[in-house]
């Protein structure tokens, strides 16, 4: 098909215009040069002033007759400006993840909005350090933990930004007011450049590195100065000094006039982490988070472009700050699922970081205690360079992890959610006044069916993922649509305890309340965190020891240090293990390792009890021994066998519509079209998505696998073309490359 004669052009990317493309004619002389993402010059407005624009689409029909349209003036080919580089990045996102150019541009460019100058509030200490100590003593005696947190912080820093105090230290307004009334602190508001942090947070100096740490810092520096920047993976247990490495690598880059981007999962963007960076880099840091208004975000981007900021810390969208001299992108906790966007374009921050680094000649440093199988695989294939840090640099002991076999519990007549071992330890901790976390992972679990007596799990014979129980007694595979009737008895051991797993956090809380009537419980799950700040409230209340037991879903295991927690119970490790998703064992391994890390952050070593029906499963076994390598070897063998990422690539295509039959028909048509056009293509489905209907919108899904990513891009392009030629379907289509979740 020849390309169209009309170009849709966005004039002057001044951010607010991104939404509105104008149509221009492409002159024959420029026909070969005009492509999506190319920067052009066009006459604009009544005076036909020449303006810069970006081609976002090329079409073969226009809404106006030709004589009402103007021609593109020229395609300048001089040096690529910063903006043009971002347009190229947007084009790359569009090509590799499947979305419109406008969606891609909106992803890389912040929206300009006129916002009033903001007032920035700070708390300032008004008393001497000696006086502060006496207040601390009083607070200690009164066990006023919230006050203590603030007082201790004031001991380290004379001035604290208000938002850090409230959001990260979890200190409530009444507590702050109390200290103001007592004359210990004063509140000040001043006009500032919205997102900047101007205060002096004190400073610290670089630690002298261990030989292992030094090797990382030196290699990255040498590779870069030798004109050969690479992607590195730093695999190191918590406390092994990864953050110190990040900071020293960044220092090296700043020293040669380069800039750095640090990605941290939003949930781990804690006060402690930020303070470490402030102390090392002071005013040169910019922080991005999801609570920034679009105006604040815009300011931050301006400051980056102006050279006022050298280091930006934030979640995945911080990747797009406009640094001219980018030297390095650091991605901490690189295995985190939140690095993949859930909106179109569904880009992965890791791959996008590597592309940005390629465009700018920068390095990429990934770090994790439990690296993603994807990244570890890329180290094995030589794409990334691997470094290991295997020693803890602080004295803290690793927790003691034990397994409770739930089959055994059933045999011994214990049908409670809590194993006897866990009950025993809970009694002990409650007596001592220490805190407990109970963790129930329900992520991606749509009622997998398992045998309580022997641990058998019903799986799809074609996909090797667990089947999900649907109403009407059917078990369904969400990859391929395979369906089977529910079993009456376990095919392995004959027991009648073969059931869909239903336990939720509410049931757990009920059980705990019945067994331990005196224990104060808190529950954190999707239901209790609907309000904007309820998440922070629950955490601070637990931090303030207003509860003995925190019961929750995966959101409780991440990023927070609870020094008084000495017992962690993982109630049903299998639940996440047999989610109908090929990444389930990986996620389970990571979660178990992380959950274990929650215990014993303070002085005393903690205890972790992992309850499971499958103690022999490789992922539980290796988590018990904290053996990443062992886990990886088994997991990658399985991925290779099944052609799952990273051994091959996978594209999921989601069709959703209020009209069920139309969505199904389009999915069928597309599947047929692909099979006709591409010989030997491996298409699975279409089948109903695991959540087959949301809000009366029906969802169908296709999966396609191929060894080469480029082939999947080709398939995607031909689907896009098909959709363009069949616009009458009232169905929304979303692409997801190497999906994190099965839909
Ligand atoms: P990670 O990011 O891997 O969890 P950190 O960088 O936070 O590890 O380091 C853990 C602790 O060890 C911190 O208290 C840090 O100050 C300390 N630490 C890190 N590197 C060194 C070093 N080279 N010498 C002494 N202490 C160190
Ligand atoms: Zn299947
Ligand atoms: Zn059985």
3D architecture notes:
With about 750 residues, this protein is α/β, with parallel strands linked by helices. The protein is about 35% helix and about 20% strand. The strands form seven sheets. Strands 10-11-9-12-13-8-14 form a seven-stranded parallel sheet, with helices on both faces. A six-stranded parallel sheet has the order 15-25-24-16-23-22, sandwiched between helices. α16 (about 535-545) links the parallel β22 (about 520-525) and β23 (about 550). α1 packs across α2 and α18 (about 585-595) runs parallel beside α19 (about 620-625). The two termini are about 35 Å apart. Residues about 115 and about 190-200 have low confidence and may be disordered. Adenosine-5'-diphosphate binds near residues 208, 213, 241, 242 and 393.
Quickly list its features.
single chain; about 750 residues; alpha/beta; 7-stranded parallel sheet; 6-stranded parallel sheet; 22 helices; 29 strands; globular; binds adenosine-5'-diphosphate; binds zinc ion
């Amino acid at each position: 098909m020849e390309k169209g004669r009309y170009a849709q052009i966005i004039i002057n990317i001044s951010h607010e215009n991104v939404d509105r493309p104008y149509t221009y004619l492409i002159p024959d002389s420029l026909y070969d040069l005009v492509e999506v993402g190319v920067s052009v010059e066009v006459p604009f407005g009544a005076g036909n002033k020449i303006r810069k624009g970006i081609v976002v689409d090329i079409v073969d029909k226009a809404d106006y007759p030709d004589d009402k349209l103007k021609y593109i003036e020229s395609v300048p080919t001089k040096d690529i400006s910063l903006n043009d580089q971002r347009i190229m990045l947007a084009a790359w996102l569009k090509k590799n993840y499947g979305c419109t150019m406008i969606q891609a541009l909106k992803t890389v460019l912040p929206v300009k909005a006129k916002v009033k100058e903001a007032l920035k509030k700070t708390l300032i200490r008004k008393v001497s350090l000696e006086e502060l100590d006496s207040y601390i003593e009083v607070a200690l005696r009164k066990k006023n933990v919230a006050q203590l947190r603030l007082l201790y912080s004031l001991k380290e820093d004379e001035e604290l930004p208000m938002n850090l105090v409230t959001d990260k230290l979890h200190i409530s307004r009444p507590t702050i007011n109390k200290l103001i009334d007592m004359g210990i602190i004063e509140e000040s508001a001043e006009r500032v450049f919205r997102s900047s942090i101007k205060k002096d947070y004190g400073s610290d100096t670089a630690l002298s590195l261990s030989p292992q740490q030094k090797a990382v810092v030196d290699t990255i520096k040498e590779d870069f100065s030798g004109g050969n920047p690479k992607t590195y993976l730093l695999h190191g247990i918590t406390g092994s000094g990864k953050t110190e490495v990040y900071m020293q690598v960044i220092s090296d880059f700043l020293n040669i006039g380069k800039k750095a981007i640090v990605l941290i999962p939003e949930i781990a963007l804690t006060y402690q982490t930020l303070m470490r960076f402030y102390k090392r880099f002071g005013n040169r840091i910019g922080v991005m988070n999801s609570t920034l208004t679009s105006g604040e975000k815009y300011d931050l981007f301006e400051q980056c472009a102006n050279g006022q900021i050298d280091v930006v810390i934030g979640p995945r969208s911080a990747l797009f700050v406009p640094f001219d001299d980018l030297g390095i992108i650091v991605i901490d906790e690189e295995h985190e699922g939140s690095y993949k966007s859930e909106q179109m374009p569904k880009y992965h921050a890791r791959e996008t970081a590597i592309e940005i680094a390629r465009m700018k000649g920068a390095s990429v440093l990934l770090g994790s205690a439990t690296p993603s199988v994807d990244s570890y695989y890329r180290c094995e294939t030589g794409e990334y360079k691997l470094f290991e840090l295997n020693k803890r640099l602080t004295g803290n002991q690793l927790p003691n992890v034990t397994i409770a076999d739930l089959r055994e519990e059933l045999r011994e007549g214990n049908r409670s959610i809590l194993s006897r071992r866990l009950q025993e330890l809970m009694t002990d901790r409650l007596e001592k006044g220490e805190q407990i976390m109970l963790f129930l992972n329900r992520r991606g679990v749509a009622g997998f069916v398992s045998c309580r007596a022997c641990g058998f799990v019903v799986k799809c014979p074609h996909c090797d993922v667990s089947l999900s129980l649907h109403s009407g007694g059917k078990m369904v595979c969400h990859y391929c649509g395979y369906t089977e009737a529910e079993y009456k008895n376990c095919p392995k051991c004959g027991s009648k305890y073969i059931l869909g797993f239903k336990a939720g956090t509410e049931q757990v809380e009920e059980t705990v309340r019945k067994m331990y009537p005196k224990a104060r419980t808190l529950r954190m799950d999707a239901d209790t965190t609907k309000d904007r700040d309820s998440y922070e409230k629950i955490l601070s209340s637990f931090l303030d020891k207003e509860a003995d037991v925190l019961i929750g879903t995966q959101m409780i295991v991440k990023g927070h240090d609870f020094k008084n927690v000495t017992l962690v119970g993982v109630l049903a490790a299998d639940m996440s293990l047999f989610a109908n998703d090929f990444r389930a064992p990986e996620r389970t391994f990571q979660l178990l390792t992380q959950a274990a890390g929650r215990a014993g952050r303070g002085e005393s070593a903690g205890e972790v009890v992992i309850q499971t029906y499958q103690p022999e499963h490789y992922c539980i076994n290796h988590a018990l021994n904290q053996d990443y390598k062992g886990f990886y070897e088994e997991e990658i063998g399985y991925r290779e066998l099944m052609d799952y990422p990273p051994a091959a690539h996978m594209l999921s295509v989601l069709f959703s519509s209020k009209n069920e039959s139309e969505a199904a028909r389009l999915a069928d048509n597309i599947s047929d079209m692909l099979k006709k056009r591409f010989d030997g293509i491996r298409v699975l489905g279409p089948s109903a998505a695991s959540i087959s209907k949301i809000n009366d919108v029906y969802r169908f899904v296709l999966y396609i696998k191929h060894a080469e990513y480029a082939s999947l891009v080709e398939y995607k392009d031909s689907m896009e073309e098909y959709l363009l030629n069949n616009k009458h379907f009232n169905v929304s289509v979303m692409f997801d490359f190497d999906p994190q979740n099965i839909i």
